[in-house]
Design brief:
alpha+beta, three-stranded antiparallel β-sheet, 4 helices, 5 strands, 33% helix
Length: 168
């Protein structure tokens, strides 16, 4: 009986030492982190600068935005039940980036209901400098409402195009 207790105590002590060594090491880096970096090269023009964002081993070049007012702001630091700098949140952002590299669509489903998936999509759009247009659908929304809407300006009716039926 006493030998079992000493074996358990020594194995627990070994585990604690390994954990302490891992936590105190300065060269340990989390598996996922995101960085934004600008690169210049001799092949590019002197005034041309390219910016990339990297999560893990996924890298994406950031394009120049045509309408910067449509790029979401303030979603990367938002607390959504999962901290935005947590490994799980970065894993989701990396998955979205991999889907984007493959030019595949994403459909975010899950529970519990809430704003987490919308905030994740808007965080990805903010991180990659993507323009977003939000379309709210209700049971009263018709196909004509999605394609065009009427606006009255200076006593005249103007038909304006609605946003596209895609988030990205």
């Amino acid at each position: 009986m006493a030998s079992n207790l000493t074996e358990i105590a020594s194995s627990s002590l070994r585990r604690l030492k390994v954990l302490n060594r891992i936590l105190n090491s300065t060269n340990s880096r989390p598996p996922f982190s995101y960085t934004r970096k600008s690169y210049t090269s001799d092949e590019l023009k002197n005034d041309d600068k390219r910016t990339y964002v990297r999560i893990g081993n996924s890298v994406k070049e950031l394009k120049v935005v045509k309408e910067p007012e449509k790029v979401p702001r303030g979603y990367l630091g938002l607390y959504n039940g999962v901290m935005s700098d947590s490994q799980l949140y970065l894993k989701y952002l990396r998955w979205l980036m991999q889907k984007d590299e493959l030019r595949q669509d994403c459909f975010l489903i899950g529970s519990p209901p809430g704003a987490f998936r919308r905030n994740l999509a808007l965080s990805f759009a903010e991180l990659t400098h993507r323009e977003v247009e939000y379309l709210c659908l209700t049971r009263d929304t018709t196909e004509a409402d999605i394609k065009q809407r009427k606006e009255i300006s200076n006593s005249t009716v103007i038909y304006a195009n609605q946003c596209k039926n895609k988030l990205f």
